[in-house]
Amino acid sequence: MEGTMTLSKKIAVLSVFLLAACGKGGSGGGESNGIAGADPACTKKLNLVENQAMNEVIIGDLKWSTTELLKDKAKKSNASSTAHLSIKARSSRCTGFLINNNTIMTNNHCVTKPSDARGIVATFNYTKNNPGKKYTCDKFIMTNSGLDVALIQCQGNPGAEQSQVVLGGFKGEIGDNIYITHQNCNYKANSRCKPTQKYSEGKLLGSNGGQVEHNADTLPGSSGSPIFDADSHKVVAIHNAGHNYGPNNGGMNYGIPMYKIVQYLKSRYPKVEMNTTTDRAPAYASCGQ
């Protein structure tokens, strides 16, 4: 598990644990391709897809798993929007996710300035059994340290094949069930492992200094991952930091509330297209058309 106590302690924690690590599929067996209750307009706009059909303990007895095992179609589509980011200018990696046809959202501490975007390669659908598809995403759009968010633009229009997320314009509540799709592996156990796509479940546990607290399993490299509200399948926050302490990998993970980021982007970058709503209806039925 990737909190904050005193201000000085928080700074120390985030200094160490800022987490940059420095297809359309078809359904088989006669299963329907659609999601029950989906709005056809949202299906088209978001390019809802199904991904192709290992557990590693990270915190306590919680586990993450490969997204290849997901059966829920909304979760599969959200996994399709998630990408491994190879950030060559910083010799690091992060996670990012598609918010429109060609724009990826990640953390500011992954892309701190325009030059950091040079040479970034995003790999979608990079799983245990799939090498994924690569796109050059080297056009810098913006970055903001206060919200720990950055946007980069890709060549080749990945949204033609991958899904797009719906950004939640609402505030998550303590106790809400969440899940995260991210690119990582348990390199603490195997330093040569590959950061393939993972799925982690958890809950929103609180808020602290403008961040939400959660307990879904992550490790450095998961920075920039989308935190989805489990009921609406909308992005409720962007994962950005964490801290391990005590026995049995106790600790806390953090994210920036998405409604704050949406408000900022609408105000400062109105030309950036986003799928966003303030309601908690399922993303595939309410996508901000």
General description of the model:
The protein is globular, with a radius of gyration of 17 Å. By secondary structure, the chain is mainly beta. The longest helix is centred in the N-terminal third of the chain and has 11 residues, at 7-17. Residues 1-32 and 50-62 have low confidence and may be disordered. The chain has helices at 7-17, 40-46, 73-80, 258-268, and strands at residues 56-59, 62-66, 82-87, 92-98, 103-106, 121-124, 133-136, 139-144, 149-153, 167-168, 177-183, 197-208, 211-214, 226-229, 235-244, 251-257, 276-277. The chain has a single domain, classed as Thrombin, subunit H. The strands form three sheets. Strands 7-6-3-4-5-9-8 form a seven-stranded antiparallel β-sheet. Strand 15 and strand 16 (251-257) form a beta hairpin. It is built from four helices and 17 strands.
